[in-house]
Amino acid sequence: MDILTVIGIVLGISAIFVGNYLDGGHIASLLNFPAIFIVLMGTFGAVFVQTSLVTMKRAMKLLSWVLFPPVIHLDKDIARIISWSITARQEGLLGLEALIEKEKNKFSQKGLQLLVDGSEPETIRIVLENDIQIFESRSNEAAKVFESMGGYSPTIGIIGAVIGLIHVMNNLADPSMLGAGIATAFVATIYGVAFANLLFLPCAAKIKSVSRSIVQYNEMILEGISAIAEGDNPRSIDLRLKSYLN
Amino acid sequence: MDILTVIGIVLGISAIFVGNYLDGGHIASLLNFPAIFIVLMGTFGAVFVQTSLVTMKRAMKLLSWVLFPPVIHLDKDIARIISWSITARQEGLLGLEALIEKEKNKFSQKGLQLLVDGSEPETIRIVLENDIQIFESRSNEAAKVFESMGGYSPTIGIIGAVIGLIHVMNNLADPSMLGAGIATAFVATIYGVAFANLLFLPCAAKIKSVSRSIVQYNEMILEGISAIAEGDNPRSIDLRLKSYLN
Amino acid sequence: MDILTVIGIVLGISAIFVGNYLDGGHIASLLNFPAIFIVLMGTFGAVFVQTSLVTMKRAMKLLSWVLFPPVIHLDKDIARIISWSITARQEGLLGLEALIEKEKNKFSQKGLQLLVDGSEPETIRIVLENDIQIFESRSNEAAKVFESMGGYSPTIGIIGAVIGLIHVMNNLADPSMLGAGIATAFVATIYGVAFANLLFLPCAAKIKSVSRSIVQYNEMILEGISAIAEGDNPRSIDLRLKSYLN
Amino acid sequence: MDILTVIGIVLGISAIFVGNYLDGGHIASLLNFPAIFIVLMGTFGAVFVQTSLVTMKRAMKLLSWVLFPPVIHLDKDIARIISWSITARQEGLLGLEALIEKEKNKFSQKGLQLLVDGSEPETIRIVLENDIQIFESRSNEAAKVFESMGGYSPTIGIIGAVIGLIHVMNNLADPSMLGAGIATAFVATIYGVAFANLLFLPCAAKIKSVSRSIVQYNEMILEGISAIAEGDNPRSIDLRLKSYLN
Amino acid sequence: MDILTVIGIVLGISAIFVGNYLDGGHIASLLNFPAIFIVLMGTFGAVFVQTSLVTMKRAMKLLSWVLFPPVIHLDKDIARIISWSITARQEGLLGLEALIEKEKNKFSQKGLQLLVDGSEPETIRIVLENDIQIFESRSNEAAKVFESMGGYSPTIGIIGAVIGLIHVMNNLADPSMLGAGIATAFVATIYGVAFANLLFLPCAAKIKSVSRSIVQYNEMILEGISAIAEGDNPRSIDLRLKSYLN
User: Fold this and answer.
1) Closest C-alpha to B30, from B18, B20, B45, B44
2) From the candidates E78, E190, E197, E216, which should be mutated to test the interface with D, based on the most D CB atoms within 10 A?
3) Which residues fall within 8 angstroms of residue D229, CB to CB, at 6 or more apart?
4) Do residues E167 and A25 make contact, with C-beta atoms less than 8 angstroms apart?
5) Which of E48, E155, E181 sits opposite A197 (nearest CB)?
6) Which of A4, A7, A24 sits opposite E167 (nearest CB)?
7) Neighbour subunits, B (≥3 Cβ pairs < 8 A)
8) Which residue, among B74, B104, B73, has the nearest Cα to B238 in the 3D structure?
9) Is D233 a residue whose pLDDT tops 70?
């Protein structure tokens, strides 16, 4: 679990509630059902219109990356690729066949399969690059769902605020209604801005960043598999892959 | 029909009207003809100035994608391309001629025609890539019509609000006019923001996203047709196209 | 004349004036000389500082595209290029010499001249691509003049509004001055936003869109001229250029 | 001197001061030392933090381009390059040696030196393209200094406004202090927006635009020098370079 | 130490505190604990959610670049590369082996090691370009941490302001509470905008700019090492690298 993210969520929530308490406000003044209804319904409505079911499902699935990003050990993987290149040198590319089933990472598995099949180095590179590119464009599409939520939510918050203010205007004669209306108005703004800045946008950024590190990881594997296919010696492969460390 | 989009539209509208009701407001306070006139006329005016008739017609046509996006079955299509490659291996490229007329997808049809004509692999790739690129740039141009509406609409809403406020200022002495002016002012803001965020921008994003998935689908077909032209074996083609699944 | 653009301008102006009338406002309340002076002088001032005389002249010239965009008949031009390729096949490239003077489009003329001169296909492509690229970058520079106006105008409108409000603040004791000051303030905002959203930005977008379609048109001609230089047969050229239709 | 820029500066300043006068305001209400102090100190502070001394010096040097952009005569330079190509044809590349010292433009000088040294056409292109790229990235870095000023200045203006308003709030009981505070508040907003929109952003845009035209000019020289190195005939070089005219 | 950055920080802080003093305000009115709590907790919370621990550590490490950017002497380094090329000419590439250990810069060291290993020029270029690219993408990721802080901080400031205003609204009947609430509201805005514009955004821009100059420096070394591997003569290498000066 990504401990920094958990701390971040706690900090964000306490910024609002503890901050409100320090300022001498009551917690009740931050809770308003119509405001939360307008902001969440409106935001999900806007995002649902623009998103296909497939993308929405993928977005929900990748959401787990925010708390549980895949663990990547670049140094161990470089060592594993070097060991493949030594096997390939000693036993030929067919010597890698036994390793395919043991390999857990699907991308590496596909790369090893391509090596064992004796595909041209050029073909291996094209197939794996295509894989990376499609993975990248699809996870970005999923991240964009939360990015869009972060874009819509503050403006829907403004709609909520203006609805509250209109309500106030229509009841200028009845001062007892003033409070409720202004509360909805201002609280809707807080909900819109807070959901966007403390939740939706950071989640989108986290998914994009995790996706970028997986892409870089896969590029390293592609680099290694390509080098094995081209018959590079283990020492030179090690030199090439060390760029990804540090 | 894209059920998520329908749910999204219902959610968006109910966010405003149910939210207003929950807050204790009357529905009448959200309806104001001058406000809706200013926002819609102004938004369409701005977009009409910048759009050619051809692009406007295409935008209206692609609008149907929002509710009825083309259905794509990548797995069936990969199987079909593999079957083409087997036919080409067994009967030669001319064996594909009988399939051209049966093929419903125009892009695949063009690809098959190029194969049957015996065009160079390089030529096939250039012609089909050009097709994809022109399709992409034209559907983005169409999506931009709605994106522009989403950009203009909130600012035109502000024009409507300020017109209402000027009206109020000129009648400070006559308090009976105050209500109507402020209503136009605030409601124009809601219309501007709501049309943009619940309608125009999500529609633009949906059209772009559908266009992207068609482009990716066509790139898969291009990849398959190219591989057949280059004489790849069915197994290797299958491996290449599987990237597009999942 | 682009009828949609004319309708757009009429809609935009009537959105403000008819909308103001429907709301019960007087037209006089929208007219304020100091406000219009501040917004237009400020906007032109900012744009003049950043624009060279050459670019400003080009921008003024391309402004005519907004109402009178060049008419493009892709189908007729494809037919013409096919007829060139047939002539080149029958009479050799020199057979195209007679057509150069008749050709009205300067870009096609240059392409034909390059063919008749017997330039290498590679050279023809480089020269014509360079032409397209320079044309594109220069018309974008011209469009950016109006885009910048659209960027500066609303903020200059805010300057006008604040000048009006300061005026009001300094005369709080004299309520008879209140109206004029607030009017300048609010009307300056309307001018700033309306000029930008109903005029400057749509004009910039129209010029860019016209430029894009000319670029695409020239790319089609380049594709055709290149294919003739490479000795492609008319049928294959037809197939390549058909991508640009629809 | 770029007369349009001078006119622009005059228009921008008069927009504010004449506009304020037309509106019936006193010039004194636009002058406020604390406001100008906050906006300028804050803006320069933010930019100094992010800029290295080398870049700041370059930015100050390139600022002169705003009023005195380098004069470029594309037609004369094309004629000069053609004359070089004729010399190279008649006397060999060494015949260009006498011209190097007379050449005032450093970029052309380097190109001629490379020709006379008998460098490979490929090397000449790489060296000169590298020169252009570094020049472009460094002048953009310099332009970004003013762009950043234009980004920081309005928000620092808001800080100034809020400081003034807090001051007002703390003295609600003493109405004699109200005027001064609100004046600082509003005037700080004007300063922030006006410096950004009438000075910093237009200067940044001008520097970028001058840089772009120098880059295009150098690309033309690179094109000519390359063509001479490749032994193209003067007529073909003329055709290639004519793209840059008009 | 980068003196301009120190001056910038002093200017930014004094813009606010001296400006407040010049305007006649008390320093106490700018200090408010709940406001600073909300802004900093909220901003760090949002950034922690989106950032992995690895990236956060790198960001903290690169923060030192703001005050202590690495010193680069391009002229000395060009001279050193030329001396390497002379050594390589006289003693062969193995003659460079003695220099590897003396070399302090890790990137140059890797380049020299590749030369001494007798790697192909193409391989050297790929390995070193990969190194540069990974360095660039990782330092940009680190800079983005501060850029995100600069994006979140003003909107969290608005949350703080609205919390303060709600507090005020709920105590309209008790005027003695008015002051504190409005103070939190306005001061939270100042904190949000000031932290972003005087600290977070300039730091992000500085880190990016330092990263860019290191990238350019490494590209120069790559250019030199490549040229040595390709066997260019020292004079030609000098000509190529001189582009990076000035």
Assistant:
1) B20
2) E197
3) D93, D114, D115, D119, D120, D121, D124
4) yes
5) E155
6) A24
7) A, C
8) B74
9) yes
The encoded tokens of residue D227 equal 């063509």
In angstroms, the separation between the Cα of residue A235 and the nearest Cα of chain B is 30
| Chains D and B in direct contact, meaning 3 or more beta-carbon pairs closer than 8 angstroms | no
Transcribe chain B into DSSP letters. --HHHHHHHHHHHHHHHHHHHHTT--GGGG--HHHHHHHHHHHHHHHHHH--HHHHHHHHHHTHHHHSPPP--HHHHHHHHHHHHHHHHHH-GGGGHHHHHH---HHHHHHHHHHHTT--HHHHHHHHHHHHHHHHHHHHHHHHHHHHHHHHHHHHHHHHHHHHHHHHHTTTT-GGGHHHHHHHHHHHHHHHHHIIIIIIHHHHHHHHHHHHHHHHHHHHHHHHHHHHHTT--HHHHHHHHHTT--
Query: Residues of chain A whose pLDDT is less than 50?
Result: none
Shortest CA gap E80–chain A (Å): 24
C-beta atoms surrounding C60 within 10 Å? 11
| Pair of tokens at residue A9 | 């969520």
Q: Contact E110/E164 with Cβ under 8 angstroms?
A: no
Q: Which of residues 116-155 of C touch B (CB under 8 A)?
A: 154
Taking 50 as the pLDDT cut, the residues of chain E under it are: none
Tell me how far apart the alpha carbons of residues D207 and B87 are, in angstroms, rounded to a whole number.
61
Say which DSSP state A152 is in. H
CA distance B102 to A109: 38
Q: How far is the C-alpha of E96 from the C-alpha of C76, rounded, in Å?
A: 66
* Tens digit of each residue's pLDDT (9 = 90 or more) over E85-114: 999 999 988 889 989 988 888 999 999 999
Is residue B97 within 8 angstroms of chain C, CB to CB?
no
Nearest by CB: A127 against B9, B197, B240? B240
DSSP code at position E92 = -
Q: Give the residue from chain B lying closest to C217, CA to CA.
A: B134
CA neighbor of A39 nearest in space, from B28, B22, E148: B22
Yes or no, beta carbons of D163 and E210 under 8 Å apart = no
Give Rg (Cα) of chain E.
26
Question: How many H helices and E strands in chain D?
Answer: 11, 0
Residues with Cβ within 8 Å of residue D187, at least 6 apart in sequence = C166, D29, D30, D31, D32, D35
| ipTM value | 0.86
Number of H helices, E strands in chain C: 11, 0
Residues D36-45 have pLDDT tens digits of 999 999 999 9
Query: Tell me: the pLDDT tens digits for C57-108?
Result: 999 999 999 999 998 888 899 999 999 999 999 998 888 998 998 888 899 9
Average pLDDT of span B227-235: 89
E186 vs D49: CB contact, 8 Å cut-off? no
For chain D, what is the largest distance between any 2 Cα atoms, rounded to a whole number of angstroms?
A: 91
Q: Give which of C37, C188, D189, C166 is closest to B162, Cα–Cα.
A: C188
C-alpha distance from residue E113 to each of D187, E43, E82, E99 (Å):
62, 45, 17, 10
Q: What is the pLDDT of residue C36?
A: 92
Task: Mark yes or no for CB contact A50/B23 under 8 Å.
Answer: no
CA B110/CA B104 separation, integer angstroms: 11
Q: What pLDDT, in 10s, does the model give residues D194-205?
A: 999 999 999 999
D137 contacts in chain E (CB < 8 Å): 212, 216
Q: Report how far residue E242's alpha carbon sits from residue D128's, in angstroms, rounded to the nearest whole number.
A: 11
Burial D226-240 (b: 16+ CB within 10 A, else e): bbbbeebebebbbbb
Burial (CB count <10 Å: 0-12, 13-18, 19+), residue B169: middle
Please enumerate in sequence order all residues whose Cβ is within 8 A of that of E235, keeping only pairs 6 or more positions apart, or say none: none
C98: how many CB neighbours lie within 10 A of its CB? 12
Chain position carrying tokens 């020709």: D115
